[in-house]
Amino acid sequence: MKYGYFNDETREYVITNPKTPTKWINYVGNLKFGGFVDQTGGSLICKGDPALNRIVKYLPQLPSYEFNGETTYIRVKENDSYNIFSPYYVPTLDKYDLYECRVGLGYSKYISEINGIRTEITVFVPENDPRLIRDIKVTNLRTTPVELDLIPVVEYTHFDALKQFTNADWVPQTMESKLIEEENGFKVLTQNAFMNRGTSVNYFTSNHPISSIESDRKIFLGDNEFGTWANPLSLQNEELSNYEASRGDNIGALLHHLGEIAPGESKRVITQLGQGEEISREQNSINKYRDEKNVDEAFNSLAKFWDNYLSKLQVETPDEQMNTLLNIHNPRQCYITKNWSRDLSLYQLGFGGRGIGFRDSSQDVLGVIPNYPEDARELIEKLLHTQKRNGSAMHQFFASTMEANEGDSRERPDRPDYYGDDHLWIVQSVCSYVKETGNIDFLNKEIPFYEKDSEGNPQESGTVLEHLKRSVHFTRNDTGANGLPLLGFADWNDTINLPTGAESFINAHLYGKALLELIDLLEFLGETETVETYKTWYAEMKEVVNNVGWDGEWYIRYIDHDGEPLGSHKNAHGQIYVNGQTWATISGFATEERAETALDSVYRILNTKNGIKLSYPGFNGFDPNKGGITTYPPGAKENGGIFLHTNPWAMIAETIVGNGDRAFEYYKQVNPVYKNDKIDEYEIEPYVYPQNILGDEHPQFGLGRNSWLSGTSSWMYQAGTKYILGIMAAYDGLIINPCIPKEWDGFKATKYFRNATYEIEVINSNHISKGVKSMTVDGEKIEGNKAPIFNDGKTHKVVVVLED
């Protein structure tokens, strides 16, 4: 069954059946103010920290047909009662003549037709203006006039999200709503927790006279008579009660009498849900968005932002699904993931201590650097603020306070209190930013390390470059019995928590990759002495990895505290891990022969039609010495599941060895656009990557979960653009080095780089995967495959011809 289609012209995914297998969402606004809306109009909105300043109550665990957060009712008086329905399908569940949810860039638009009434609702957050706009247009499709009432509704939550679920007595006693009446029938319904009075207040209002309001859920539904969200009994009354709740389950319901609407006539109501310190201070902005022209202007401004963001790289390949993904949905997901980290989704609910992960965001930022570099730099600086003086990093932090902690390691005092990989990812982030922008001065910026003195002041600061150097220095000095970097509490795979003394090969490979990045950077800067030192360190670790890590057909993944391998043919479970093979290639530690052999083992043992499994075979029972990986059944998540984050690393590795066909095969089999025709197996949104898909050891092989906020989006964007298409920024130019399927005749791309536009055409008449025969720039031949930096605001034509 199909649930919708891609519309590349409008840059939307159009949901045509609201009964999707799971909730499908879209993000609006950002972490300053915003959240997500689902395919039937429900929302989860917060301002700032989602754990500490939640506005709307949304329970992801509820069935999709239940009211969740927000909705709108339309009622038509027929005989002696009202016919009530919702333009969002939920919660009234009526049969619709037309239903669409258009998942757009920073907005969702709902179009429905029922009972001769057409409704179009656009939901978005204006740029830099904290309020959720619902722009509602109602049109009479009947041949006779009709009188309509419109009732938008929001259900509030306590600002402390966790308390909503843990203290069923205290929370209701603190909630209160007040009505502010203005001239011309305008009203503002406010809501807040008692303790926040005078500091922050939620408000709900519109641009149309409001006849009456309701602020108490029990009264609105008619709980005593078993009224429901599908049929609120109060809507059978001519007016709502105008009750101002002083406790209980607070809602906001605004009754608008739209009057008689002639055939073909439309009326427009614009609601605002926001939060401010005092309503008097918000009145000017509230009035601003009661003006339709200002709302239209704000929506157009949002579109201009995305026009600019996406224009930085556009591609034209022979694969239309790849074009759809790389031109629209993948870079959009990169931006959303960078903004929200893992702080608020259907899966990470924004409370309980997740915060922003150092490792997560160091990778997420790589996906937005080409499109939005200065915004990326701001996040990089925040990350560097949570690096410790010894070069390691705090595992996660909270953007609102910049307080950091060690993450899950706090729960296992018998394990090390640091993650062995966190600090190494930031090296790639900084180097990628400098390559893209040429902002060498950023390396000299002084940024404090995380440790504070008794008065809360930083104990030490260092330049950005010093931070990077300390990253590799920490790992060099944090090695185990075999000379490999220690695992710490965990490496990238959070679920493998071996006893103290365990060593990690991916930490070794990340260390090698970080050294390669710094060698490249420092050669450009002319620090020859440090370059030679790092080359020595790199050679030393390469020798250790190959001496103790090769298992015959692949590289092992760990050596535990007893000196035993994990990820070896000797193991009954977890014999091979994909990361051990891909990162051996990416780090350059694998010899050419071993790289090809290891990657062939991945293809033979770990690849499936739905993506590459993280490991095989899965553990089948809990083992406290292995940790969290053994809490999942075989084929789920890290225990042999298709953990998508790792799949682009396999693509990158295959391009390094020149296997474009296999790299693209891997790319296609996890491209969510291709999943649109088998949603009943896959279930989740086909317009974003998930974190994981159940592997073939699981009975629900192919089922996806944990969509949107995943490092998969960043690495898939890099795998597609930098490695398959081969368009990669360097300190002194733009490298074009494709590794594409042999069947392609070539491709075109437009890339904005260093204040110039590069129109790129790659010609593959000989049908090979990799090998640049020639490059011309503006008709002149260039030696090698690196286009020069122009910085002239002009457009330049680059033609690349491939040949063995």
UniProtKB/TrEMBL annotation:
CDD domains: GH94N_like_3
GO BP term, example: carbohydrate metabolic process
Keyword terms of this UniProt record: Glycosyltransferase, Transferase
One MF annotation (Gene Ontology) recorded for this entry: glycosyltransferase activity
Domain Glycosyl hydrolase 94 supersandwich: 11-291
Entry annotated with the keyword Nucleotide-binding: no
Residue ranges occupied by any Glycosyl hydrolase 94 catalytic domain in the UniProt entry: 305-726
Highest taxon in the source lineage: Bacteria
InterPro entries linked to this entry: 6-hairpin_glycosidase_sf, 6hp_glycosidase-like_sf, Gal_mutarotase_sf_dom, GH65_N, GH94_catalytic, GH94_Enzymes, Glyco_hydrolase_94_b-supersand
UniProt KW Transferase keyword: yes
Protein name: Carbohydrate binding protein
Species the sequence originates in: Evansella cellulosilytica (strain ATCC 21833 / DSM 2522 / FERM P-1141 / JCM 9156 / N-4) (Bacillus cellulosilyticus)
